[in-house]
Design goal:
Elements: E1 12-15, H1 20-27, E2 48-54, E3 57-71, E4 74-86, H2 95-107, E5 114-119, H3 124-129, E6 133-134, E7 139-143, E8 147-150, E9 154-159, E10 171-173
Parallel strand pairs: 4-5, 7-10
Antiparallel strand pairs: 1-2, 2-3, 3-4, 3-10, 5-9, 6-9, 7-8
Amino acid sequence: MSDNPSSVAPHVVRLPQYSKADQEEILGNGDDPFGVASTGLTWLPKEEHFGIRHEDRLVAHAGLRRLPVAIGDDETEVVGVGGVAVAPGMQGRGLARLVVTAALEHARTMGPQHALLFCRPPLVPLYRRLGWHPLGTDVLVEQPEDRLVTMPLRTMVTPLRDGARWSSGPVRLFSLPM
């Protein structure tokens, strides 16, 4: 008998939807599955979803959403990446790399020059290995009741086009974070 729990290589599929039940299938039903409840932020749902199934169970997810942003005086759009999750028992197998890579391949077809994500500091090394770069500036995001707040999580970006360069200057997301 093999020590390998599955001899089938994982592959990413596009999901037609992604519900709270799907998230719970991956992360369980804890109160703070992403470890960001302490930020007090309200988040937007993603619009495009990618997942990995293992033995008929959803074990990984990444979502995308196109968002308006200002970088300095330039208004543009980014593809927001969020909801990245890997089931605890499946971590360390490269599933985050697979699902984020597939999501970014699709993001390249969406038009914007860059993808942007927000992450907890312990995840910065993972995203650096995946080609993301931390921004050295604060990012303002909208919140309910017309509030504008500084994103307390680490903001990271990655280009979606060869030669794409992130402009310098203050960054403002013209929406809730994703």
